[in-house]
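Box S2. Input/output pair 1.
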Amino acid sequence: MTKTLISFGHGYSAAALAKLLIPQGWRVIGTTRKPEKFESLRAAGVDPVQWPDTDLSPVLDQASHLLISAGPDADGDPVLRLYRDQIAARADRFDWVGYLSTTGVYGDHGGDWVDEFTPLTPATKRGQMRVAAETEWRGIAGLPLHIFRLAGIYGPGRGPFAKVRNGTARRIIKENQVFSRIHVEDIAQVLEASIQTPNPGAIYNLCDDDPAPPEDVIAHAAELLQMPVPPAIPFETADMTPMARSFYAESKRVRNDRIKTELGIRLKYPSYRDGLAAMLTTGG
C-alpha cells in the first residue's frame, strides 16, 4: 500500500522531506495558497492542492501521514480551524502526525541552555501562538502526534550569502545574544527518522551543536566569500523593523540530545560553519 503524506503548508522544510520520501515510493500531497506554485511542485513529484480554497476531507481519507508546517494566526491553527473534527475522527488511522513548531516557545533564557522539558515561557506573540497551537494539537485524543521545535532554518537559497554579496548584511551586536540554527537537510533527516520509528507524544528540538551570536555567522559568511566583514552595529541604535527587533528579544542555547539518542541522528551539519561551507560549494 502506498504511503501518503499530506503536507499542510508545503514549504522549505516540507520540500526537503519530500525529496527523501518520494524516491521511496511515497505519495506526497502538498498544499499551497498559490496556484502559480503548482508547476514547481509537480516537477518535484508533489501533488499540489490549493488550500484553504479546496475541501481536503476526501484527501484525508487517503492519508497515512500528516505534516503540518502551516503556522498559526490570530485565530489559531488554520488546519484545526477547518479540519479538527475530521482529523479527530480519523486519529487512529494515521501512522504518524508531525507538527513543525519553533524553539521560540521557550522564550528568553539569557543565553542559558534549554531542552524539551524546559517550561514554555514565550516572550513574543508568535511564540505564544505556537504554544497555543501545540496545546490544541496535543488535545486530540489518539492522534500519533510528534512535535518538532525548529531553531533558525537555513540552507540552499536561504542563508547569509546573498545579503553579504549585495551589501545588505548587518552585524547587529547585542550582548549575550545567542541563537541556535538547523540546516534544512538535517530537518528532513530527523522527520524521516521519526516517521520510521514513531513515538506518539514525543517532542524534539531540531538544532545543531553550535549555538552562536548572529554576528559571528555573518562574519564567517563574509570570510568564506572573501569579502569585507560588515561593520558592527549596536543593537540599541540599529535601524530595524519591529519584526526584526523581536527576534532579539530572546537568547538561548537549545539542546538536541533527544534526536541523537532516540532517533539515532548524526547531523550532516553540526555547525553553521559546516553548513555554510557546503552551501558555498553549491552556489548557496
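Box S3. Input/output pair 2.
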Amino acid sequence: MPARLRPTIFAVLLTSTVPVAAAELTVAVASNFVKPLEAMAPVFAAAAGHQLKLSTGATGKFYAQIQRGAPFDVFLSADEKRPALLESEGRTVAGSRFVYAIGRLALWRPEPGQAVRPDMLTADPATRIAIANPKTAPYGAAAEAVIAHLGLTEALKARLVQGENIAQTYQFVATGNAAMGFVAWSQVSRDGAAASGSAWLVPADLHPPIRQSAVILTRAADNPAAHAFAAFLKSEAARKIIQQHGYDTE
C-alpha cells in the first residue's frame, strides 16, 4: 500500500430490504483483513442495510490516529494490544472489545509449485526477505519473533526489507523487490492451501498468537450501525467467512 500517513479510503455501499434506518459506519481495518471484510459486506448489507466507509492501514498507525481524534467508529485491529490500550484510555465503548479473528503467518514466495522451508532464509546471502514493520504491524512483530526463534536475527538483520504494513510487505515480494517474505496466510491461501505462489505456513507456536480484536470507539456509542456490525462479526455467518479466508476463530 503506497500511502504513508494516510490510509486508503473507499466506500462500500450496502443496500437491504430490511426496514431499518440506514446509518454510516466508518471502520478502520488492519490491511490483512480487507478481503474478508469485502466478502462480508453483502452479507452484512442483507442483514442490516447500513453503509460502510473503510480505511485500511497499519494497526499501530491507526492507534496513533485514534488518539489524535481520527473519526473512526469501529477499529478492527491486527492485535489485542491497541484496542486494550484504547479501552484503558477511555476511547472505547465499555464492553465492546472482543477477538474477531486469530491470524496465521506464512513465509511466501511468488513462484508456484516451489518448496518453501525456513532453512531457505539463509540459503542465499543475497536474498532479501520482506517483513512488515514490527513497530506498527502485528504481523511484522510475529515475523520478528519467528526469526528470533529460529536463531536468525543477526544473520538476517542486513537483508530484511520492511513494509509499512502487511499489504505493502506482500507487494514487495509480489513485485520482486524481495525474494520471499513473511505475510498473512490469509493473503495467499484458499481452502487450506497456497492459492498463489508457494508458502510455508508458520507453526503457531513459533510466535505469540495474533489475536485480532475489534472495538467500538466512543464517537459511535449511539451509532446503531456500529453495534449492528459488532454483533454481525460474532455471528456464524461472519465466522464462516473469516475461516474461509485463512483465519482461526475462538
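Caption for Box S3: The chain has a mean pLDDT of 89. Residues 129 and 160 are 5 Å apart (CA to CA).
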